[in-house]
Amino acid sequence: MSGAGCELAEEYLQFGQPLAAAYQGQALAIDVANAPYINGFSTKVFSCFAAGGFMLTSRKADLAGALGDLAEAITFSSAEELSAKANHFLEADHERRDLTRQIQAVIREKFTASALYARTVPKALSALKGHE
Question: Is pLDDT larger for residue 75 or for residue 61?
Answer without folding.
Answer: 75
